[in-house]
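Appendix B. One record, verbatim.
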Amino acid sequence: MNMSKIFIDITMSLDGFIAGPDISSENPMGKGGLRLHNWMFGAQTEADKKLSGEQMQNTGAVIIGRRMYETAISGPWGNENPFAAPVFVLTEAAPEQKVAGFTYVTDGIQGALSQAKKVAGDKNIWITGANVSQQYLKAGYVDELHIHIAPVLFMAGTKLFENLGDQHVELEVQNCIQTPGATHIVYKVIR
């Protein structure tokens, strides 16, 4: 039986930004932020397709934050779940408009993780979004980081690795694939 992994999967600029400045419902990735995802939605290579396909196939649940949900659900997601798995939204209060495929969790990261584990079974749990990723990484729940580094410097926006405290997080490279759209690196988190 496979042991499921809890992993962060996210694309960032070389200087560590996962979105540009001025995030809004009209522009959920911020100014210029869509540039990060050219490897997924632009000139995708066979290696890029394989990576994203395997990830979707092996994911049993996704955890995101309220900000990602609010800025993307009525915009690019068109009031639909874009993931191939149930999504758990960390939030202080459930939104008035509920969308199929999303569960709203108000009892913190442990509550969301517990619900995600029940749904995921032996599949992986995918965490994404800056704030949510930081919370799970800081709490020591993350097994792997799947970082896609786009060949661009943003200089401003939302940073992935902020608010983590001052303790080192040791990593071990498990895989690295270079494509024109991104450098795809899988790191194991050393505990």
